[in-house]
Amino acid sequence: MNIGILMLIFSTCVQANTFGGLEHEVNFAPRSAELSAKEIRALVDWKMNAEKTFPEADFYVSAKSNDDMGIDDELAQKRLDQIVLFLKQTNRRLSFVDIDHRRGKYETGQMIDFMNAVLVGVQPACTRTANCGAEEGHPVSDTER
Fold this sequence. Notes:
Layout: H1 3-9, E1 23-27, H2 37-53, E2 58-65, H3 73-89, E3 94-101, H4 109-115, E4 117-123, H5 126-129
Parallel strand pairs: 2-3
Antiparallel strand pairs: 1-4, 2-4
């Protein structure tokens, strides 16, 4: 199914993200490179929020491969390609795309989920200029002065 079409179909959904909303895990079923409707909706919502918060940000994508867990390089690349295609269809800049090669078999559900997830994140524009001080709409707090 075309990600662009699905992106237009789904509206907002609350999804837990990493610290500050800078990163988002896109979960895939074991041994699958197909994005579920739930994951597409969550990615769309996260991306829209990230773009509001960091309008000039670059995006990055990182997938994991682990032969011991049935996530070979080909599967990791297919997962990566799904997310990269989505970001390119929405005209987002990519600062980097990579596959993190890991070893070892993990048995716990949380680690299995982690290994089957692709990490998508934003790199705020201020990190390119090394000037992440006060910006319009984001004043420096008293503790940061």
